[in-house]
Design a protein that fits this description.
The chain is mainly beta and 202 residues long. The protein has one helix and 21 strands.
């Protein structure tokens, strides 16, 4: 791993199988969540010193819509995991990697906001690489609800025009998972943070 500046590093990309420039998305100690500039894949990297530290296997529940699946993730034993953190979880059966957000942590049979990996019983998380977005559409005389399947980093803008189910609709407000409603024109929310979109026919 070669650090080029505070926001970018050179590292081996598993998808490209070569050393590429990466954007640093999140850091905690020597741990980095990065995105390859060449192919766009997101993965974890660690310094040599961190890689040499003792690791522990932690149970993690990944929820995607109505479906939840159990996996395990290897983390440095002293690595602190916090709610809201983003992690990469390997799915060997599907030969895929899921980007997830930590929703809650159980340590010694208690729910806690953070804990070292060695002290964690189970991590509960939700997949955010692809998410199901609820939309309430007002057609003038009635309101109907649909779901959109979107990439987690897809942006929705209050006042923006979206083509939904063959029609054009304007987003009037967005209910977020953590911060209530966003209702001012130009407010932007990523799909992974949307609780529900409200839209009206143009």
């Amino acid at each position: 791993m070669e650090i080029t500046n505070e926001t970018q590093i050179m590292a081996i990309c598993p998808a490209c199988a070569s050393k590429e420039l990466h954007d640093v998305l999140k850091r905690r100690g020597s741990y980095r969540l990065v995105r390859c500039i060449e192919c766009g894949s997101v993965h974890n990297i660690a310094s040599t010193a961190m890689a040499a530290r003792q690791t522990t296997s932690v149970a993690i529940i990944v929820s995607r819509g109505e479906i939840s699946e159990r996996y395990s993730i290897e983390l440095p034993s002293d690595h602190e995991v916090c709610t809201g953190d983003e992690l990469l979880v390997d799915d060997p059966s599907a030969d895929e990697v899921h980007l997830v957000e930590v929703a809650s942590i159980e340590s010694y049979r208690r729910r806690v906001p953070s804990a070292a990996a060695a002290d964690i019983d189970t991590i509960w998380s939700r997949a955010i690489d692809k998410v199901s977005v609820k939309v309430a559409i007002h057609d003038g005389t009635r309101t109907r609800s649909i779901r959109l399947e979107e990439y987690g980093d897809r942006e929705f803008t209050v006042g923006g025009i979206e083509e939904i189910s063959g029609g054009k609709f304007r987003i009037t407000r967005i209910k977020t998972r953590e911060r209530g409603f966003r209702k001012y024109k130009g407010d932007v929310v990523c799909a992974k943070d949307v609780k529900r979109l409200f839209a009206e026919r143009v």
